[in-house]
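Chapter summary example.
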Amino acid sequence: MMNQSEMYMSRALELAALAREWVSPNPMVGCVIVHNDLIIGEGFHQKYGGPHAEVNAVADVKNKSLLSESTVYVSLEPCSHFGKTPPCADLLVNLKVKKVVICNLDPNPLVCGKGVKRLRDAGIEVETGILEKEGEWLNRRFFKTMRMKLPYVIIKWAETADGFVAAKDGSPVKISNSVVDFNVHRWRAEEDAILVGFNTVKNDNPQLTNRLWPEGKNPVRVIIDKALELSGENKIFVESALTIILNSLKNQKEGHLEYLKIEGDFLPNAMLALAKKGIHSILVEGGPKTIKSFFEAGLYDEIRVIKSPLILGEGIAAPHVPAGIPFRKEEKLLDNKIFYYY
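The structure predicted for these 342 residues follows.
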């Protein structure tokens, strides 16, 4: 059973998650302000470049005179530097709040511990580590990129009941149902980028947008085309989303297309290059060859496998989840099942 601090922090995390499609490359942050065991204000960081959670929560407080006697619950350490907005630590200091309770310290070196120090130096009581694991999970993409300079990678594929992902000649087969398709487009909106390989573009000619989830942003499309063999007839060349083409030949920008030359160890260096561009998370929807390359390089964090009752008889075999990867949960959507590994 949760204690009182955990209850308020849980609410802050719920608020933070409301903006999962809009705040990257910033983290998701929620804030709850409590006075005499009553919530008097709450808010969350709603969109990248917009006001932070603390600012929105303070604005939600009707009687500002209560702030000096209130406790602020925030899911991430208040920032202490000037970015697109002023420091939230300074805001709380200026308001002379009584106490600040923090879920996670910010791994960003511009903040890490400095926000807490700023608050404590001003005489404000600070408590940290409340629901820390839950906060780490919520912002796992942000934390990984800050700590490892690599994007958080989710591998996803759909397979038939007999273990195939496409027809024998490589042509696409409708495997997942319409509800799952809708869900996959929501996944796309939650990540910074979607990645496929040369064969997927050649055989499937996908749009790689989240058109079934129009409320969210389109992810950056990332294509592996080392020798630049794809033609302008493919849908990815249509100007509907920023598209990065990872290749071994050139660096060049052409409208919505950006050709990014990768030298040396291709896939690891490609991930480093994408992280430098502010891409904190990637949904890999490529075929077995592309997925195998991520597995062999150890460049993945989650796996989502969609299984359909469809029987194909023959075709291109689905990838296998690497041994030792913990199964996390199973979800059923009509006649399809989704298996999550982390």
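To summarize the output: The chain has ten helices and 17 strands.
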